[in-house]
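step=predict obj=EamA family transporter n=301
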Amino acid sequence: MSNNNIIKGVFLVALGATSYGMLATFVKLAYKEDFTTAEVTSSQFIYGIIGILIINLFQRTKNKNTAVKASPKNILHLMLAGTSLGMTSVFYYLAVKYIPVSIGIVLLMQTVWMGVLLEWFLDKKAPSLQKIIAVIIVLIGTAFAINIFKINFNDPNIDWTNGLFWGLLAATSFTTTMFTANKVALGISSAQRSLYMLLGGAVIVFGFSLYTQTTPFNFEIFTKWGIVLALFGTIIPPMLLNAGFPHTGIGLGSIVSSLELPVSVMMAFFLLNEEVLGIQWLGIALIILAIVIMNIQFKRK
């Protein structure tokens, strides 16, 4: 693989991760305008499905219907896998409703050690020393990043109980999403896979919306935040990451995609005026270091 292709892949993955990093701040801004989690998630998925449908139609026209089409079995498996995608959106958006965005993204990044545990459980093979060290660094980094020793559980502006609960649930479902996305229906185009996973996620999102929306649905969300949330959450990042990862490989791609963490914290710092202390930046740096350690190859070629 040429250096130009690798640079191109790094650029695409970095842009995709940066887009994801901006998402939670936009959600928080929507909350400040009194939109509900149901309204935010529903508008994002509706616009997202429309956007991915257009991309699929464009690709089908361009390829003159020669692309491999998803079988009914592929569609079922992808929609089932997509339910975890819907859960991740709901859980993560609920988390940032109760806690700062800079803390929410740190909780979401617990997928690093959750993925190791899932791999251990499914493969029945103990993780390597390299992965164990990375997990320990992630846990230490998380303690610093949420400033665990200075948490004020009596702060009336932060609901730590609900925030931590939904944040860790989001990380759990996101771990499932990443695992299934790399295992299910790999023979069809990424646009088709994204579409059917979004449809599966929409079942969860719409069900959640019907159950929790107790006030009349505010359709202004579609003109104010829906398109932005769909672009940065369900359209741009998957397309860029799917285009970039084949050039970078999983290891380098995972390292570059960790840009999502500092971008999310910086967006919260500048746009939401959230306080981010030096010890929290240290924790974020440790989590990124752990991702590097987990994915780098120490063996000489």
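step=describe
DSSP finds eleven helices and no strands in the chain.
step=end
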